[in-house]
Structures are given as C-alpha cells and as structure tokens.
Amino acid sequence: MTSYIIRRLLLMIPTLFGIMLLNFVIVQAAPGGPVEQMIAKLEGFDVSATSRISGGGNAEIQQFSMDETGEYRGRRGLDPELVKDIEKLYGFDKPATERFFMMVGNYLKLDFGDSFFRDASVIDLIKEKLPVSISLGLWSTLLIYLISIPMGIRKALKHGSRFDIWTSAIITTGYAIPSFLLAILLIVLFAGGSYWNIFPLRGLTSDNFDQLSFAGQMLDYAWHLILPIICIVIGGFATLTMLTKNSFLDEIHRQYVQTARAKGLNDTQVLYGHVFRNAMLLVISGFPAALIGILFTNSLLIEIIFSLDGLGLLGYEAAINRDYPVVFGSLFIFTVIGMLVKLLGDMTYMLVDPRIDFEARA
C-alpha cells in the first residue's frame, strides 16, 4: 500500500502541471485581462463584476483589447508610459512562457502572490473565505450521506412498497427544484421576505456573536446555516439515495447472499456482514467528488443569495475581474486538495473491503 501511495503522489506532479498549463493557456487567450481592466477604469468605465454580469462591462473592456500591431485600442487619452507601467505592474511586460514558469517556480516555494485588485495575498484571501465554504460543504455533505445511505438501504429492502414509492416521489421532487429557487422561496417565507422573519439572512454569525456564551455561539452559528444547508441538501441527496438503493439491490440478488441465508444467517447479519461492504464501494467512490463539489463550486449561488462570502464567490469574482493570482492560486490549491481527497477515498476502499489491494493490481 505504501508504494501505491508514493506512486499516486508522484503522479500528481505531472497531472497538476498539465492542469495548470491548460488553464493558463485558456485564461491568457480570453480577452479583457487585468491590463485592459485597469485601462478601462482609468478611462472611467465601470468594469465591476456586477457590470460584467449585466453585459455593460464586456463591450467596454473589449474596446481596450490589442489590435493587429500589438497596441491597446482605446488608450488614446493615456500616456504610453503609463500603459507600460501598468503592464509592468501586472507582469505583462514579460512573455507568457516566462510568466508561466515564474508562477510554477513561486508555487513550488508556496508563494502564491498577491491579488491584483484586493489589498491582500492569495493565501490570506483563501483563509478569510475558507470558514464559510467549509461550513457549507462539510455539514451539507455529512447530512446528505447521513440521510441518503439509511434511506437508500431502507428503499432497497422495501423495494416496490408504499414507502419506496412515496420516498421516490419526494426525493425526485426535491431534485427537480433548483437550489437557488428554493433559496428564494425560503427567504420569502422564513427570512423576512413576505411572511415570517424567523431565520437570519446574512453571514454565518450575528453582530453580537463575540458577546454570546459558547453554547449561544454554537446555536447562533447553526441558526445561520439552516436555510443555506437545506437548499444544498434537498437537491443533493436524491442521487446518492438512488445510487445506494440500486447498489444494495444489485448485491442482495447475488448468489453469495442466498448462500449466507442458507447457512442460517438472519437478514441483519446478511445485510451488514456481507452486503454492506460490497454495496458501499460504489457509494464511497463518489464521496471525494461530492465534498469538493459542494465545498468549492455548488454553493456559489447559495453564497450570493444568503450573502455568504466564501470560496465560490471569491473564485467567481476573480475570474470575472481577471484577478490572475487569485484564479491560479486557488485553482492550484483546490486541485491539490481534490487529488489528495481522491487518494483518501481509494484508501477508504480498503477499510470497507480488505480484499481490495491496489498494490497487487499495480
């Protein structure tokens, strides 16, 4: 197992390099980089993220793209030396290949640079936003698995019953409702929209959080998370529930189950002594992707609607504003985390089913 882990860790190096190279090429080819954004701001145009969403900022930045001579159009009112200083400020006075290898070299030294448009380093920004995303991702994933696995097992055992039919209708309905629409509905109903003002609408904590007791802080923290987590969980547990059900149904009808029952084992012994570890392999395989997906991407709209300043919103704003250090720094860190979590998922296979030996397969 040790040699397998070492090989996987070594394989991460070229994989990570390829991902960074591909994304660097794509981002560099996209129009409206940081130089064009700064020129547009100096010319008095609104190039904020909200302006880009509404469509006004794209056309304004587009006119500052390079022409066939390599010069920026639309900069006629600016001093050419100022434009050169802006290019030097953002490192665009160097060729793209040199900038890429400088970035890789800095990342090897764990130097992720500073944001172009925020007065903070990339690491400080990620540390600042991480608690929000961890809160949403961790609790949502745990709730999804705690609900889905028992329900999926129960549906498999009661396949075709009223319980199976009604629960299938409920989870299909939940899956069909977009999370952002559910979020708006919950705000209207329970967060002071038009009916009851029961739950808070903004942030993870109240203004008087520091004055509360430890128990009060935990309750306040949970109270702020209820609505956002409901929105994520409702649409997230349907797929996992059906996957669990189908996995157990497939295993229940295998020959070794009939043999175990013929030996006198009861249903509980057969289910948890034989079926469980085989059926759970497919369920466990999706855990890393589910956690990473909720942690970094799936909660973007939820963060926006509930005013939660997390990693999803940070990455979106960085991509819109062409804040390259934040884009590439967060991409590097998230990719490393994703690959390590995937390796952890493979190692968990052996805990569920010791018959799996990755080293022997290699």
Task: Please give a handful of descriptors for the protein shown.
single chain; about 350 residues; mainly alpha; 17 helices; about 75% helix
Structure write-up:
The protein is mainly alpha-helical and 362 residues long. The protein has 17 helices and no strands.
The mean pLDDT is: 77
N-to-C CA distance? 10 Å
Q: Classify the helix fraction into a percent range.
A: over 70%
Topology pattern, helix = H, strand = E: HHHHHHHHHHHHHHHHH
Q: What is the total tally of β strands?
A: 0
Shape: globular
Point out poorly predicted stretches.
59-64, 71-76
Instruction: Classify the secondary structure makeup into a structural class.
Output: mainly alpha
Q: What's the Cα radius of gyration?
A: 26 Å
Oligomeric state of the chains present here = single chain
Main beta sheet? none
Short description:
With 362 residues, the protein is mostly helical. The protein has helices at residues 2-29, 34-42, 49-54, 56-62, 80-89, 96-108, 122-157, 162-176, 179-190, 214-252, 255-262, 267-285, 287-298, 300-305, 311-320, 324-352, 358-361. The N and C termini lie close together (10 Å).
